[in-house]
Amino acid sequence: MTTTTNEASGSGAAFVAAGDRIREFLLANGLKVLLVANRVAPVATVCVLYRVGSRNEAVGHTGATHLLEHMMFKGTPEFNKGKNTQIAATLQKIGADFNATTWYDRTNYFETVPSDRLELALRLEADRMRNSFIAEEDRQSEMTVVRNELERGQNEPMMVLDEAVYAAAFREHPYHHPTIGWRADVENVPTARLKEFYDTFYHPDNATLVVAGDFDERDCLALVEKYFGALQPAPAPIPEVYTDEPAQEGERRLTIRRAGELALVQIAWRTPSVLGETRVLSNAELSARAVAPPEENDIYPLVVLAAAMSHGVTSRLYQALVETELAVSAQANCDQFRDPGLFNVYATVRPGVEPAEVERVILSELARVGSEGLSEEETEKAKRQIVARVAYDRDGTHNIASQISEAEAVADWRFYETYATRVARVAAEDVRRVALRYFTEDARTVGRFVPKTGGETGQGGDVAGEQ
Length: 467
Known about the structure:
By secondary structure, the protein is an alpha+beta fold. It contains 16 helices and 14 strands.
C-alpha cells in the first residue's frame, strides 16, 4: 500500500493515497473520492456515503436519517415528477439497479449503470446532495411508508427483542435508538427539523464518493469535478458525536411479553469499535487511527469467535443447543461499528424448553471458551469461513462499492483492504483472551421474549425489568 499527496490527477481532484486496488482523491470542497477500476463488465457503480446515521440523531428526530433517505428520492429542481425526470424513473430508463440504505453510522445511495451512463449517475447524486426537495407533502407520504415499515418490524419478535436489548445496553450513547426511529418521532417530526438536519449533514465534506467498475480514471475525475466540485462545503463544522457510554456496572435484564409463537433469548456484551477503541473518537482521531491502525485489535478475535460459535452444524452453539433440542436456532454476531458496540448471541427456544435453560447453556459455552479456548482446528475453520464470506461479498461492482462504503463509515477504506489479512492473523489464544476480557457478568444485558397465551391479560408489547 502506498500513500502520497504529490501525484497529479489531471483534474481538480488531488491524489491522496493508493491501496492494492483503491485510489483516493480529495476535492477542494472536502469530498473524498475513491476509485476502483474493474473492467470485467461494461458497468459502473456509483455510491455516495454520508457520515450520518442514527448515531447522529437525538430524541425528537430519531429516524430522521432514514426518513430523509426516502425523501431524497422525491426529486430536485432538475430531477422531478413535473419534468417527468423523477429520480427513480430516470434510473429505470437506463436499466440501472439502485437503492439507498440507512444504518447506525451512515447512509448510502447507490446505482449500478451501464458505463456509458456514468455521467448521468454522477450528475444525479451531486444534484440531490444539496438540492433535494424536503417538502411537507413528501414528508407526509413517506412518513406513512416508514411507519408501515416500522409496524412490520414490530410484528417480528426477534426485531422487537433486539431493539429492546440495544435500548437497555446503551443508556446514553445514541446506539440506544433504533435506526428506523421511535414511532412518535417518525410520526411527528416537523418538516422544518428534517430540512435543518439535511442542511447540517448533507455536504461534500461529510461524504465519500465511491466509483467502481468500467471507467477511465482521468475522465471519471473530470466528471466528478464537473458535478461535485461546484458544491460548497458545509457552512459550519459538522456536529460530532461525543457521548461515551459509561462503563456498565452490573447485569441488565428485560422481558418482553406479547403475542408470539416461540420464546427467544438474547444475551449481549459490550465490545470495542472496529478500530479497537472503547470510547467515541472524534473525526480527526478516527482518521488518524484508520491510517495507522493498532496492531492489536480485539475486534478480529471477537469476529472469529462469533463464527466459531454459530457458523455451521459443527459450531459450538449449534451442537450445544440445536443438536440437543433445546433451541430451534442459535446465532452469534459481533458488531463492527464506528463506536463500541455489542457481541450478541440469539437463540430461538424450542417449545416446552425453559428460556432459563437455554441462557444457562449459552453462558456455559462462552465460559468454556474463556477457560479452555478454541482448538486450533476450530479457529482455522472459523477464519476460513470469514475469508470465504468476504470474498463472496466482494463479487461485482455493486458489492465492492457497498463494502468500501461500510468501511468508510466506521474507519476508512484501509479497513476494507486489510480485513481478511487481519482475520487470518488471529490465533486461538487471542480468542481465549477476548472471551475472558469481555464476557463478564457486569458487562452483559439479557433479554427474553416470552409469548403470551390466549388467556393472559395486559397490553401486548409490554417491556418489564426482570429481577
